[in-house]
Amino acid sequence: MIDTRSTLSDPKALRAEIRAGRFDGPTAGQGGDALQANLVILPQADAQDFLRFCQANPRPCPLLAVGEPGNPALPTLGDIDLRHDVPRYRLWRDGTLVAEPTDIADLWRDDMVSFALGCSFSFEDALTRAGIPVRHQLAGRNVPMYRTNLPTRAAGMFSGPVVVSMRPMPAADAIEAVAICQRFPLAHGAPVHLGDPSQIGIADIDRPDYGDAPDIRPGDIPVFWACGVTPQAAIDAARPALAITHAPGHMLVTDIPSGQAERCLTGVHPG
Amino acid sequence: MIDTRSTLSDPKALRAEIRAGRFDGPTAGQGGDALQANLVILPQADAQDFLRFCQANPRPCPLLAVGEPGNPALPTLGDIDLRHDVPRYRLWRDGTLVAEPTDIADLWRDDMVSFALGCSFSFEDALTRAGIPVRHQLAGRNVPMYRTNLPTRAAGMFSGPVVVSMRPMPAADAIEAVAICQRFPLAHGAPVHLGDPSQIGIADIDRPDYGDAPDIRPGDIPVFWACGVTPQAAIDAARPALAITHAPGHMLVTDIPSGQAERCLTGVHPG
Lengths: 271, 271
Fold this sequence. Notes:
Two copies of one chain form a homodimer.
Chain A: H1 11-19, E1 34-43, H2 44-56, E2 63-66, E3 89-93, E4 96-99, E5 112-118, H3 121-129, H4 135-138, E6 145-151, E7 161-170, H5 171-181, E8 193-194, E9 220-226, H6 229-238, E10 242-246, E11 252-257, H7 263-266
Antiparallel strand pairs in A: 1-5, 1-10, 1-11, 2-5, 3-4, 3-10, 6-7, 7-9, 8-9
């Protein structure tokens, strides 16, 4: 019954609608140019390990902000209340998905620590602006993602392989994409591999482990980026007693312009 | 009889030795960290076209400095007298190599225009410092170079294919190399291609058109940069009545630190 079809280009107005329970849809195309983030919330006991895991694996797990224990605000990203401000959450108990609520006020505890992680939206926009075709977007598909034989650096209970997303493109575009994406360290940065998929343990490029099959054109080479599914997979494997994440595609929308993600770290951001 | 074996780490002292006729060897490893340059000297009538050719093809022909007609100085690069300061020159008449003098004072004319063009030394140093193997250097060979089917943009009498140099390396190093080399626009910048050589018209990677055969290791991919042989090839084909260049490997050594090539353009450089 909730209208999720209209577009709100102002991130503050969008979050107000989400907070009021009037918007619970996917956030792609919403909030104008504002940076969107993956969300992970863990009790403090497990959050310590997860923070170390992110610090040790910045390509798949670029940390935009970490909340104070028990505090649902992320002030460097905007006037955010994480109990209400994500359109749809996922609740995990012992590694099992048990609910997809639109509000977690009743689940919030005073030992909860929240993590906002960068996502690929920023660099895909930059690629498109540079005239590089983002084939899964043009085909109306989800990006293909693969488990690799590249290991993350383990931290306590969290470990596992790097998961990568793949975007096929001509070699000259791949070179330009590297040059562009290294400017977005908080959106997974430069690719981690390109060319032969078997070199990183991918047996069949046409059968991704997550997302949709790729649209590979003649002359394309596959280009692989570290992917935000990596921390999700590490959490799945670690099976913490309690974890809350955003539901796929239902991201945390911040006040930071997407081209200025480093403002998350410097604290200089538009009021 | 001239001692070319000693190493002079100060570019001014090195040029003084060259100017005095006491050094006529290759400049690799000489002049410390100073930027080295390709040299082209043409009569003004042809120089006009060549200047436009370089401007239109900055990847293969990165212009560091252009001399005033008739003036053998390049003041933005150092206290240089091009009649004496290159250890060995090549003299071309109607496109044919006719001499390899160590001094061109007797050939200098008041309509001569000189061009200093960036070379690959700067970025190869940066790759090595980044831990990326530069295989032809490690093997003691010359870099392999290939004519491609990529066209330059023609300017007057100057045209022809882009010539590329190739450095094989693992894919992860290739990604890092792109990120590094795009910071060196005056040393050919980012690669122009990687992966399948046939996509740019190279039939047999093991048989380069110039330089030595490549040392390609298992897991390497070929990475291709626009090469300073491109303008040489364009001059060869155009067959100007008169041209003077450096002899291969016998470069113009400037006073600019190799990591600061942009100082050539801004004019801010150490006295």
